[in-house]
Structures are given as structure tokens and as C-alpha cells.
Design goal:
Layout lengths: L35 H19 L4 E2 L2 E2 L1 E4 L4 E4 L2 E3 L4 H22 L2 H6 L1 H17 L2 H9 L4 H26 L5 H7 L6 H21 L1 H7 L2 H4 L10 E4 L1 H4 L22 H4 L20 H12 L7 E4 L1 H6 L3 H6 L4 H22 L4 E7 L6 E2 L5 E11 L5 E8 L5 E3 L3 E4 L4 E10 L7 E11 L2 E14 L1
Antiparallel strand pairs: 1-2, 3-4, 4-5, 6-7, 8-10, 9-10, 10-14, 11-13, 11-15, 12-14, 15-16
């Protein structure tokens, strides 16, 4: 038996190829699409932007209708004047917004993302400008891949100049919600304060960057809503879906091919090139989908051309696809426990908030004892305490308030008993309260200030205070 020859193998010195944990960003070139869903999306663009840009110019009782006047620490909302003490209503507004978002998402998916989210709205505006200046999808791709020349430089410069102007105007509009627009316009463009300049350029920079460059990356990587939306979905939530049972196997209709061997999907790829986030809806539900319906608008005309019924991509539910629900069945499954719970809570909080605002007394009073004078004895032997009253008139009219005090035997108010306060103003007044030396116990005694508007008995405040006896 011949000995076996042993051969030695030297280890390879070739280094392994590096593995990247980050996907390389690819520019998403979106094709323009027309259709029912696109019309709704543009309707929301117009509505939201008319409200955003137009509201600061709307006047109400000779003042700005909506103004969060930080300098004066007053918020004007049409006929309401809110003060920092009314921050409770801001909390209620945030709670109502959160539950409304949960409710709409549980019913119909990411409606807010696809139609009213500022990122979607501003990206649509910027892409429309881009299409008008640089051309359609193929023209933009050709322009970007081509060398830098005079035409390319000119088109890019015009596009970015318009983008920057819109961003700056949006920043100015944002600041107009915090500084009266008349004052802001009088300061334009050289007399802006430091904080006004900061916020104009800060907001404009983010607007320009996110709507012009980041676009789908904001939805995919930065927006937290995209990450936790799944917990609000269930099999009866309406979402944009592709019907694989009907569409697969997909393929082009070639001459001589058997149509029966293929599904309805002709694999044209239009649903991909119109998607704002660049996903393929045919791969199933994905967190990047913002529910805009652009893929539906692209697919339905193709189905018309090949003689197939519309709805290969449609707004429906997971259960509807699996169990072949009719439209009536889909609607009947909307009313389910979580929807009832969200709706009940939302209605309850909304009604309570409206009732609280309607029953709100448009008068606020802060009472503080003078810290430099705890208590003192007057010439006639009576005991005095000094109080500072801050009376806030939260109405649109000047008011006269009558101040009185009760709570101890022989109590008497010295100083202004009638206080005149202008509309939406804060007036401070100092009053002295006297009591006989034997009318109370040693230490703190409860007393009450009553502030009532003359000729308006319903506008009254009953505030507790303490009177110190030596």
C-alpha cells in the first residue's frame, strides 16, 4: 500500500469584503400622476397652505385673529383671549389631536401622512416647482446624470432660488403667529429682532432641507409616527394594498403568450415610479408607505388599457383581501371595539373642552400678600394686612370691577374698591384689609375677595386668601 502524499494548504491572505450595515441612498425620481387620490392630495395642499399663509392676515376686532403673542404673554384666538394660566386648554388640544390621530389611523391608515403632513405638503409643492423647471421624471434624471453646463446651472439656480424664497416666506409667516404681522411687516427687512431672525432662518432652513433634499428620508428614517403606526393597525384597518391573488404571477402581455397563465399585473412598474418614498407596494405592507394613493392612480388606468377591472391596488383591509369581503362588509367591520373606545374618549374630551371654554369666566385674579408687611397695627388698634391684586380682563371690552372682602367680623377694605381694566389687559392694585384685634385667632385666618364686573353679574371671581393675626 503506497503512502498517502500529504499536501499542505496555506491559508488565504485575501481580506474579506467589507459588509455595510447602511443602505446607500438612491435618489427617488417621482413620476407625475393624475387621478382621484392625487386630486384629493392637492386639495389638502391648497386648504392647509391657505390657512397657514392667510391666517396671520385675518383681522378680528381690530387685531390679528390668531396671535400667540409671547412678548405680552397673551394668546388671541378670534374672540378668545388666553393667558399663561390657560395652558390647561393647550393640554386638552394636544390630547384631542392625539386621539383623533389614533382614531383616523385605526380606521384608514396613514391619512394624515399622505394628505396633511407638512412634510408631504411641502414636498409636493417643491416637486411641482421642480417638474415645471427641470421637466418630467426622465428629463430630471437625464439632467442630473449629465455634465455641468450652462443650461444645467441655470435650471438648478432658478429652482433653488424659488425654493429658498418660499422657505423664507414660510419662516416669516411662522414668526407672524408670534409677532403681530403689522409690526413684522413694518420691521421688514432690516429691523427684525434677534429672535425673529433666528426663527425665520431656522424654519426656512429646515423647510428647504427637508422638502428639497431629504423628502422620503424624513418619512423613512426621521419620523417617529412611521415606526409606531403598526400598533394602531389591525386586520380591519383600511390601507393601500396590492391584491397578489389577482395580480400574480405578473408579467408583460407579449404576443403569443397565454393570458390565462398570468395575473392581472403587467409588471409595468408605474406603481413604483410614482411612489413618494420609492417602495414597491407589490411587496406587501411596508412602514415606508404613507398611504397617499399615488400607486392606485397609476395602476387603475393601466387596468383600463388591458381590459381588466380596476382595484388591483386599492384601499382595502387585510381581512377583505383574505376573505373576499364586499365593500359593504368592509364598511360594517369599521365599527369595532378599539374604534368605539377611541371615538368615545375623543367625543367626551372634545365636549368637555367646549363646555369648559363656553363656561369659562373671562376674568382672572391673582392675590398675593405684600411680603414686606406680614401684618401691622393701625393707629386705631386694628390689624392690617396688605395685598397686591392682579386683575386680568380677558374680554374684548374694558370693564369696571367692584372689589369687596369677607370672612372675618368687622373686616374692612381700604383702597380702590372699583378698578377699571382695559380690554385684554392686566391691572395691578394694592389694597389694605383691616380687622378688629379680637375678630380672629392668632396666625392665619381665611378671608375671601369678591371681584365682580359692573353690569355683568356673571363675570365674578371668589378668591380665597389668608389674613395673618399677630
Amino acid at each position: 500500500m503506497e503512502p498517502t502524499e500529504k499536501t499542505s494548504k496555506t491559508p488565504s491572505t485575501v481580506a474579506p469584503a467589507p459588509v455595510s450595515f447602511y443602505e446607500k441612498h438612491k435618489t427617488v425620481y417621482i413620476r407625475d400622476v393624475k387621478g382621484w387620490w392625487n386630486s384629493w392630495r392637492w386639495a389638502l395642499v391648497w386648504i392647509t397652505q391657505i390657512l397657514f399663509y392667510g391666517m396671520p392676515w385675518l383681522q378680528w376686532n381690530d387685531r390679528q385673529a390668531v396671535l400667540l403673542h409671547v412678548a405680552e404673554r397673551k394668546f388671541y384666538l378670534f374672540g378668545l383671549v388666553l393667558w399663561p394660566q390657560d395652558v390647561f386648554y393647550l393640554a386638552l388640544l394636544l390630547i384631542i389631536s392625539a386621539y383623533a390621530l389614533f382614531l383616523f389611523t385605526a380606521i384608514a391608515g396613514r391619512l394624515f401622512c399622505g394628505y396633511a403632513c407638512p412634510q408631504t405638503v411641502y414636498s409636493e409643492i417643491f416637486m411641482w416647482i421642480e417638474n415645471k423647471i427641470e421637466g418630467d421624471r426622465s428629463a430630471r434624471m437625464k439632467l442630473d446624470n449629465g455634465p455641468m453646463n450652462g443650461r444645467k446651472l441655470r435650471l438648478k439656480a432658478v429652482k433653488h432660488a424659488i425654493w429658498i424664497l418660499i422657505a423664507l416666506w414660510s419662516g416669516l409667516t411662522l414668526v407672524a403667529y408670534f409677532t403681530p404681522v403689522a409690526e413684522l411687516w413694518a420691521e421688514f427687512p432690516y429691523d427684525f429682532s434677534g429672535w425673529e431672525l433666528f426663527w425665520i432662518f431656522f424654519y426656512a432652513s429646515f423647510f428647504y432641507m427637508q422638502a428639497g433634499f431629504l423628502r422620503e428620508q424624513v418619512c423613512k428614517y426621521m419620523c417617529p409616527y412611521a415606526r409606531f403606526q403598526g400598533v394602531m393597525f389591525d386586520p380591519d384597518t383600511l390601507v393601500i394594498t396590492y391584491d397578489p391573488e389577482r395580480g400574480e404571477p405578473r408579467g408583460a402581455r407579449k404576443k403569443g403568450s397565454d393570458p390565462a397563465a398570468l395575473g392581472d399585473c403587467v409588471d409595468c412598474g408605474l406603481c413604483v415610479v410614482v411612489c413618494p418614498t420609492g417602495i414597491d407596494i407589490r411587496q406587501g405592507q411596508q412602514y415606508e408607505c404613507i398611504g397617499c394613493g399615488a400607486c392606485i392612480d397609476a395602476c387603475d388606468p393601466v387596468m383600463d388599457k388591458v381590459g381588466k377591472p380596476r382595484g388591483l391596488i386599492r384601499y382595502t383591509t387585510e381581512n377583505a383581501l383574505e376573505k373576499h369581503f364586499s365593500a359593504k362588509d368592509v364598511v360594517s367591520h369599521i365599527l369595532r371595539p378599539r374604534i368605539i373606545l377611541y371615538t368615545t374618549i375623543l367625543v367626551a374630551i372634545t365636549v368637555a373642552s367646549i363646555w369648559s371654554l363656553a363656561a369659562r369666566v373671562p376674568l382672572k385674579v391673582d392675590i398675593m400678600r405684600d411680603p414686606s408687611v406680614l401684618s401691622r397695627e393701625a393707629d386705631d388698634g386694628r390689624i392690617e394686612n396688605v395685598y397686591n391684586l392682579k386683575i386680568m380682563n380677558t374680554t374684548e371690552d374694558a370693564k369696571s370691577y367692584v372689589v369687596s372682602v369677607t370672612g372675618m367680623d368687622g373686616i374692612e377694605l381700604l383702597g380702590e374698591s372699583v378698578v377699571n381694566v382695559a380690554s385684554a389687559e392686566n391691572h395691578e392694585v394694592t389694597v389694605v384689609v383691616r380687622v378688629p384685634p379680637d375678630s380672629g385667632k392668632k396666625g392665619a385666618n381665611k378671608i375671601y375677595f369678591d371681584i365682580k364686573a359692573q353690569n355683568h353679574e356673571s363675570i365674578a371671581v371668589h378668591e380665597k386668601a389668608s389674613f395673618l393675626m399677630p
